[in-house]
Amino acid sequence: MAGAGAGMDGAFYYGGGGGFDDEPALDQNLLPANEGQARAGFKKFVKEFRQGQKFVYRDQLIDNWSRGVYSMTLSVHHLDQFAPALGHALRTQPQRFMSSYEQAMQDVFIELSGLPEPVDGGQVQVDDQGFRRGMPTFQLKLASWENPKLIRELQSEHVERLVVIPGIIVQASIKVHKAFKLRIRCKKCGHSRTLDLKATSRSKTAIPRRCARELSAGPDGEKCGLDPYIIVSEQCQYQDTQTLKIQELPEDVPTGEMPRSIPVHCTRYLTDTVTAGSRVSVVGVFSTEDRNGDKKKDNDGSVKVCYVQALGFMPHGDVTGRGGASGNTLRLSPADEERFTELAKDPEIKEKIFASVAPAIRGSVKDCISDLKIAIACLLFGGAQKTLQDGTRLRGDINVLMLGDPGTAKSQFLKFTEQVAPIAVYTSGKGSSAAGLTAAIIRDADGRFALEGGAMVLADGGVVCIDEFDKMRPDDRVAIHEAMEQQTISIAKAGITTILNTRCSVLAAANPLFGQWMDVADAAEQMDFATTILSRFDLIFLVKDVKDEERDLAIAKHVFEEEEEVTDAPIKVQDLKKYIAFARHRCSPKLTPEAANVLQNHYIQVRQGVSKERREGHSTIPITVRQLEAITRISEAFAKMSLSEWVQVSHVEDAVRLFTLATLDAANRNQMGGGALTDEDRQKVYQVEDAIKRRLQIRGRRPKTALHRELEKDFEPKHVQQAISEFGWGAAWQSVSFQKPCYSVKFWKNKDTPMYDVLETMHGVSSKFMSICSESFCV
Q1: Which InterPro entries does the record cross-reference, listed alphabetically (predicted)?
Q2: Rounded to the nearest 5°, which phi and psi values hold at 647?
Q3: Where are the alpha helices (DSSP H) in 318-390?
Q4: Residue 270 near residue 310, CB atoms below 8 Å
Q5: Facing residues of 386 across strands?
Q6: Mean pLDDT, residues 63-82 taken together
Q7: Separation of alpha carbons 526 and 542, rounded Å
Q8: In what helix (H) or strand (E) does residue 264 lie, and over which residues does it extend?
Q9: CA 762 to CA 770: how far, in whole Å?
Q10: Closest by alpha carbon to 102, among 70, 79, 125?
Q11: How far apart are CA 617 and CA 649, in angstroms?
């Protein structure tokens, strides 16, 4: 045999010490001879197993009892060390031996506590399951990290075996009280009996339709009739039960496949220990039960429904440093931690991180791609969550909005973030509802209401990526206000009142109101978002498709190099993912007094500038105290990149620069590429547009130079040039569908060379509204 260990009463146990799948064939020689030997062996284990000078489970049992908790958490690995056969029995026949192990826990408790056992007629009273009457019964909870199985990997050979299933809880029902001992009495003759029920079964209880006394009396006895039994509720024994649903982690689902899920039944002290959105590993028994569907489809009862009878929950390691059930499945070895500590000492660590963010996307000095990479790096590292003395919690997660032209790699940034973030959920605004993003109340298979978490709940502790953010309905966007700022979801429906955590960053991508960004219009006019949602984004980037020959050539070369696999990042994706998890867990930087002073002065200056813009009649993106907190979070993210415990002045300066280039630029960008036009100039431009319309008939054509000379007789050249640029120099509008009649105007550089086409309504709508139907191309 592979290994042996001595048990109580001279029993000799043999064990191989293997995992769940090392010994698929059940060898009876590796098991205790009977439940009595298993009970004696486990009693010895609880009393004698120790680490150093501490008796681990003996002390845990008494400590839990003193706090009124009748349970004990067992590491299966410890049981393997002490008596391999007991561990093997627990893996291969858990339903058979779990009751014996819990009886042994009661035996140890009685010996250690010194409480007198209740006796009747000189005999200790024992129920039909072997537990002493009148004494507390303890629940054994298991913990094991060995050989985890994905839900899609569970096969028929795992039925009635102990399994470890990692996943995320997506649904949790209300805790109910279910009878596991049902006391019934005949209403005719008074005969009573007790039925032992399976508390986790969802099938209906089968109560005998004939009285047992009537059957024993024979044909001449008293007739009690059909269905004589009634339930005596006060004499039944109940226990708490709850049904959960666990789903595969997003990173474990193969591309193109649906995530698998399986019901989880838990009882007693395991109820209400996890909520929707918790990332856990369930230790339990893979079991089956009869389906509740149409019996005509399954007359022989051979088709069963699978579920997991939970024996323990293990929250995944909380690398986010925030506490709670949500965490991360990454495991960092001591070698990884040492390597990352040395990496953080590199003076160019921040530049390496920025260069490693979406290396396949190339930027230039004429666009904001490089700054957008810095913003996404800050989002991934995040700030430090704070809890004030009054209990108010300030979020540390950074929210970023990318607003810009189509084809500017916004979706690629979302996909990269989903890939590199320790926890991430990707969704599209067009196909997402308020319930799908937050939480929903549904009915489970038993008809009871259950709570099911949405995308932001499942992304707790990570990042939720929302594409096509502008396609969401306004009502759905309002629903995520609380989730983005307070980072909670409050539910009060169908008798369920609870609060779910949504401690996640939001990275959203959207297009402008008119489809493409227009320099001539105010930024606020092109954002179809309410002030309440915009103020919740720490950084807002206007991503424009800059048309520049030098930039286009550099991007084209970069694309070809990428196809030839020449592109390389300073830090590999997997290492960056681990480094982010390590930094989020280890660092919670604080502001130095000098840095706080710089931040305060900048905030006051920004508020004064926005106030001046509004007094002059310009519409701007609101700048509130939330933006002050945003700069603080960005500064903390910069400090985390180098594993610094303090936010220095340099970190604040970097954060102020990024905030100025992003959000403040979006707030102040107005006319002609960022330069502001006065209201008087804007009216002059509109007058030039009207003059162009009066000079051209439907389908009319005019040489551009001639049109310029004619218009400059009545208007200033800058107003003429701006009006012509609004009409789309070097561009054409195609595939237009209007509800109102429209006409086309063609300008010509000469009689053979078309310059551009314009389609506009006959009702004089300004051309800045016409770009809703534009498709630009160079001529």
Answers
A1: MCM, MCM5, MCM_CS, MCM_dom, MCM_lid, MCM_N, MCM_OB, NA-bd_OB-fold
A2: -90, 110
A3: 334-344, 349-356, 369-381
A4: yes
A5: 394
A6: 89
A7: 11
A8: strand 261-267
A9: 12
A10: 70
A11: 35
Q: SS3 letters for 122-190?
A: CEECECCCCCECCCCCCEEEEECCCCCCCHHHCCHHHCCCEEEEEEEEEEEECCEEEEEEEEEEECCCC
Q: Which fold has domain 334-668?
A: Rossmann fold (3.40.50)
**pLDDT digits 0-9 by tens, 316-364:** 864 333 333 333 456 778 888 889 999 988 889 999 999 999 888 877 7
How far apart, in whole angstroms, are the C-alpha atoms of residue 216 and residue 213?
5
What is the average pLDDT across 363-376? 83
State pLDDT tens for residues 578-611.
Answer: 999 899 888 889 999 999 998 888 888 878 877 7
Structure tokens at 506: 């939001």
Is residue 411 pLDDT above 70, yes or no? Answer: yes
Say whether pLDDT at 105 is over 50. yes
User: Domain extents for the chain?
Assistant: 4-147, 165-315, 334-668, 679-773
How many C-beta atoms surround the C-beta of residue 386 within 10 A?
A: 15
Contact 634, 658 (CB under 8 A): yes
Give the closest residue to 325 by CA, choosing from 460, 148, 450, 426.
460
Average pLDDT value for residue range 281-296:
76
Cα–chain-centroid distance for residue 128? 46
- Residue 117: CB atoms within 10 Å: 12
Q: How far is CA 658 from the centre of its chain?
A: 27
Q: Tell whether the model's pLDDT for residue 692 goes beyond 70.
A: yes
The helix/strand/coil state of 691 is: helix
- Contacts of 768-773 with C-beta under 8 Å, sequence gap 24+, read 768/514, 768/518, 768/520, 768/521, 768/726, 769/514, 770/733, 771/514, 771/515, 771/516, 771/518, 771/728, 771/733, 772/513, 772/514, 772/515, 773/515, 773/733, 773/735, 773/736, 773/737, 773/738
Collapsed DSSP state (helix, strand, coil) of residue 444: coil
Full-model pTM:
0.69
The Cα angle at residue 39 between residues 35 and 42, in degrees rounded to 5: 135
Residue pair 86/94 in contact (Cβ under 8 Å)? The answer is: no
Q: Does domain 4-147 have CATH number 3.30.1640.10?
A: yes
Tell whether the model's pLDDT for residue 126 goes beyond 60. Answer: no
The backbone torsions φ and ψ at residue 315, rounded to the nearest 5 degrees and listed phi first, read -60, 140
pLDDT digits over 137-194, tens only? Answer: 789 999 988 888 899 999 888 888 999 999 999 888 888 888 888 888 888 888 888 8
Helix (H) or strand (E) holding 491: strand 488-493
Taking 60 as the threshold, does the pLDDT of residue 6 lie above it? no
